[in-house]
Amino acid sequence: MNGSCENQCNSRNFLTKSEKLEMLQEYQAELQKEVQGVSERIKELKAE
Fold first, then answer.
1. What is the pLDDT of residue 39?
2. Global pTM?
3. What is the Cα–Cα distance from 30 to 48, expressed in whole angstroms?
């Protein structure tokens, strides 16, 4: 992933396949939380 935390957050240059997978899954979970927050905010604004 270009420009992601992958290169900046780790002191190692080469990660194993399982480490990359775990990082991507954690990143995906954070993105899903962000989408949920945005959806909730949109609903709040529509209700005003």
1. 98
2. 0.67
3. 28
Q: How far is CA 11 from CA 6, 32, 48, in A?
A: 10, 26, 47
| Distance set, CA 47 to CA 24, 27, 35, 37, 43 (Å) | 35, 31, 19, 15, 6
Whole-number Å distance between alpha carbons of 41 and 45:
6
Tens digit of pLDDT for each residue in 3-44?
A: 555 555 657 889 999 999 999 999 999 999 999 999 999 999
Token pair 């979970």 is found at 29
> Which tokens go with 35?
């989408």
Sign of the four-CA dihedral 39, 44, 47, 48? negative
Q: Which two tokens stand for residue 5?
A: 């935390």
